[in-house]
Amino acid sequence: MKPENLLLRSPTSRKLTTGCEILDECLRGGFPCNSMTEIVAESGCGKTQLCLQLSLCAQLPISLGGLDGSSLYLHSEFPFPFRRLHQLSRSFHQSNPSIYANHNDNPCDHVFVQNVHSVDHLFDIMPRIDSFVRNSKKRFPLKLIVLDSIAALFRSEFDNTPSDLKKRSSLFFKVSGKLKQLANKFDLAVVITNQVTDFVESSDGLSGLRIGNLRYLCSSGRRVVPALGLAWANCVNSRFFISRSDKIVCKEKTENDESGPSSVSRRAQRRLDIVFSPYLPGASCEFMITREGICAVQA
Amino acid sequence: MEAWRLPVSSSIRGKLISAGYTSLSSISSVSSSDLARDVNITEEEAFEIMKLANQASGSNSCNGSRSLINGAKNAWDMLHEEDSLPRITTSCSDLDNILGGGISCRDVTEIGGVPGIGKTQIGIQLSVNVQIPREFGGLGGKAIYIDTEGSFMVERALQIAEACVEDMKEYTGYMHKHFKANQVEMKPKDILENIIYFRVCSYTEQIALVNHLDKFISENKDVKVVIIDSITFHFRQDFDDLAQRTRVLSEMALKFMKLAKKFSLAVSIYRTHYYTSLTLTRLSLSRGHTQPVTLRLALILQSQVVLLNQVTTKYTQGTFQLALALGDSWSHSCTNRVILYWNGDERYAYIDKSPSLPSASASYTVTSRGLRNSSSSSKRVKMM
Description:
Chain A is an alpha/beta fold.
């Protein structure tokens, strides 16, 4: 076994841009390669939106913060938002026409989608990723794996009995070990989404155990904790948390409709927090979801 | 055999004994220059005494009267040795204080804590700090970093290395001019070069690497710290046979101990994971181990972790509790153990197990420059 020379590694590990400058600045360039990043959020916060955007941004050339590669999107939450991906890819194509000009293809051609029904199915798929990466085309080698979401797989299948929980946590380490191995071997970025559960104040539980920079996670006015517990938290390298709060963002008064007080638009405010990460200090960034994708709001 | 039996002049014998060198082994355990300084004699004389002492103890061991096994040491010598052992600073003086000056060489130190508490940060900090030159009170050694989780980030290591170099420059500002002239210029690049980094992707690789370490370190003698981040990760999957896991782990632990003693280096194991499970699960995990499941850790953490005291006082089964991963048998495998935890918004370190240090806790903070004191005097950096 030979040690790695750290000087030969680029001083900053390669990052995958989120497609938004402000968000990138908050994450020091985006999602790191050779690392596993988890996005935790309740439903409707934009996990999937962010993942879709990442899988398109991976195709950007390295000079623009992309990985010059394709992406594999494993989804366990049905249905897969094909329509939305298509919509995003059109605007992506429009803003980056030069990438596809000579090859007569479009961004959707380089996002591989695979459904995952169960944990067993996932273990069935993972060994095949290896050969998939090897055989992937020269033009866009696989550079990003998205698993959306891990919680959907594990929350349904296991009982709340000691033996099941024990089995479950050893499976977490297996999934994570395998994905990290792939990430290391092919310098991939791995992004995994996770759901939340409500924080229940109990006298004997450890749900209140603090993990990371935030004292507690709050979304839609409720206290939440990431699903799958402490064992899973040990499996990821970085954890980001997206929260949402319904706030009146702007009062749009259209000129032709002066009388309507109902023109107050309520827009969900979304916020990304860094819960823990080996290279990032605690920070946060607000963003919104537009037709073109995710874009941060300057504070 | 006592020192007064040595065939030397009575004045030197008197000096030897008054300086505390009463036994032969205490003489042979130091270098001749140290002896000369301590006893206030010339180096030649000291060398002569050493030679005599070695001869005497050699004939002594042949007789087999005193030490049954060659290489046995008495506690007094070991105390001397221990005091002279260098320690690796953590860059956080509060933490250094409770650790007795830093992470000690020759020991296996285990650091545990929840995700995001700063275990990897301590690891990177130590791998940088071990390289601080001797002139600055460091060890001037190299570091081996074994990464099982993939959390080591070069950019973060570079950041900490840069801060370390800056601090050293600031320090030389207070020193004599002639010293400034001949100080070695250290660059962040050199620091990165001296971190020997292994990325381990499975437990077989991990075992293979640990077996290989002995050879590797004897080829690279200036390695002073081995950091494993984390010991657990690969051992928490795929091990249905827990008895086998226990065997594999204790074998590995023995190797660490041997390495640490042999090369007097510090081994920091990051048993990074807290293990939450039902008590039932935990019982089954520690199966094969004769001791009853102790709730020691839970008791210690009770003031920090919500309502854990109820776990230990009210219920014995079917309730949650926190413990370090890998079961109880592993607890015997390390010399020192430090537990990191949150207390409010501050990070704390607690000495859970140590043969020589009292239990104590200290707060620390992780800044952009690395590990630092969390007191307001050092201007706690709130990073946004």
